[in-house]
Amino acid sequence: MPKGYIIARVEVSDEVAYMRYVRAATPVIAQYGGRVLVRGGPVRTLEGEGRSRNVVIEFESLAAAERYYHSPEYMEARALRRDAAVADFIAVEGA
After folding, report:
1. In a 3-state reduction of DSSP, which class is residue 89?
2. For position 40, what pLDDT does the model report?
3. Which CA distances in Å does 36 have to 21, 46, 47, 60?
4. Which of 44, 52, 69, 87 is the most exposed place for a label (fewest CB within 10 A)?
């Protein structure tokens, strides 16, 4: 079965508040079997519009990635991000 991935492109406006979100979301990722492959780091936009922060999280399947994203635990963490950043999140099935 192909892996599932959450890919997030983020522009942080309040670093302190965003770090509260990160601290809340990190244990939820582990709880749902996720593994962070990319979190922040230097970015080179090669084409199109980029965001300053990018995250890739691997899950056992696309369904598992969606369970994480829609979980009550992550919804609580997501509320902390609301006023701290603008973000695009997608769930995608691996090759």
Report:
1. strand
2. 85
3. 15, 23, 24, 12
4. 44
With helix as H, strand as E and coil as C, how does 4-71 read? Answer: EEEEEEEEECCHHHHHHHHHHHHHHHHHCCCEEEEECCCCCCCCCCCCCEEEEEEECCHHHHHHHHHC
pLDDT per residue over 3-53, tens digit each? Answer: 999 999 999 999 999 999 999 999 999 999 999 999 988 999 999 999 999
| pLDDT given at position 1 | 87
Q: Is the pLDDT of residue 78 over 90?
A: yes
The pLDDT value recorded for residue 43 is 92
Q: Report helix angle 15-31 to 72-81, nearest 10.
A: 170
Domains and CATH numbers, the chain: 4-93 (3.30.70.100)
Cα distance between residue 39 and residue 67, in whole Å:
20
- Residue 29: CB atoms within 10 A of its CB come to 21
